[in-house]
Amino acid sequence: MLTSTPPSWPASALDQALARSRCQHRAALGLYLPVGYPTHSGSLEALHAMAPHCDVLELGVPHRRAHLDGPTIQHAAAQALDNGYRMRDLFTTTADLASSTTAALVVMTYWAPVEEYGPGLFAETFSAAGGAGVLVPDLPDRAATEWHRTTRAAGLHSIPLIPAHASDAKLTAIGTSSSGMAYAPAAPGRTGTAGPLSPYLPRLVRRLRDATRLPVAVGIGISTPARAAQASAYADAVVVGSAVIRRMQAATGGPGAAAAAAARDFVAGVRRAHRPAA
């Protein structure tokens, strides 16, 4: 199989986080939360509470047309927007976290908010605040080439969401234009699914490694610590979002305590899948 070689990016916090977990013979843990949920101060509290327990913090940009997300994240994003979220909140939150944690800061955003803000300004401002990478799950083909050039110039990794049934040629092309890591869906459907992981996921992870040489993160469907342990047996990173938000929604105390408890449970799941050195 033809293997793509990703462009050379400066070493970043994301590379360092993945290297640390690899040295510990485990998958990295990524935790996702929309910025501004449940409130601006509650979001900061929860993110700071999760940071000591994870390797990557994935900061969500709230968007009302989040068509790839399930009800849990859609409702959380809508609540953040109703509470007055603005794009500047992403950058101030990133700078606040960057000053106090070694977790890599990655943003997950739909393309429309980036296009409205200005792709160049978005990339430069997020990078200056301490961001390490950007995942745009609905990045349009018409914008991809310029977006990859823009993120690289800003020193950010451009992280692709992998189609579950992509051809080898498509995977190779993705590896050529992207960097940091590849993000593969762990289960079919939208975020928040509580069903089993896809039986084809291990094969997709192997194909991605063969075709791109990128570390492989899996998310979408990591609903329990047991699922995190299952995926950690073969993935380089697992990302959890909806399950954390559901814990926060069900908690009677503050968002920080609930987020920290969820983070501890999921990191325990990841560490249960301790793997021998490669």
From TrEMBL:
EC number: 4.2.1.20
Top EC class of this enzyme: lyase
Highest rank taxon of the organism: Bacteria
Biological pathway: Amino-acid biosynthesis; L-tryptophan biosynthesis; L-tryptophan from chorismate: step 5/5
Catalysed reactions, as listed in the record: (1S,2R)-1-C-(indol-3-yl)glycerol 3-phosphate + L-serine = D-glyceraldehyde 3-phosphate + L-tryptophan + H2O
The keyword Lyase appears for this protein: yes
InterPro entries, sorted: Aldolase_TIM (IPR013785), RibuloseP-bd_barrel (IPR011060), Trp_synthase_suA (IPR002028)
Leader sequence residues: none
Pfam family, one: Trp_syntA
GO molecular function terms listed in the Swiss-Prot or TrEMBL record: tryptophan synthase activity
Active-site residues, as the UniProt record annotates them: E58, D69
Entry keywords, A to Z: Amino-acid biosynthesis, Aromatic amino acid biosynthesis, Lyase, Tryptophan biosynthesis
TM stretches of this protein: none
Subunit structure: Tetramer of two alpha and two beta chains.
Family recorded in the similarity comment: Belongs to the TrpA family.
NCBIfam families: trpA
PANTHER family hit by this protein: TRYPTOPHAN SYNTHASE ALPHA CHAIN, CHLOROPLASTIC, TRYPTOPHAN SYNTHASE, ALPHA CHAIN
Function: The alpha subunit is responsible for the aldol cleavage of indoleglycerol phosphate to indole and glyceraldehyde 3-phosphate.
Stated name of the protein: Tryptophan synthase alpha chain
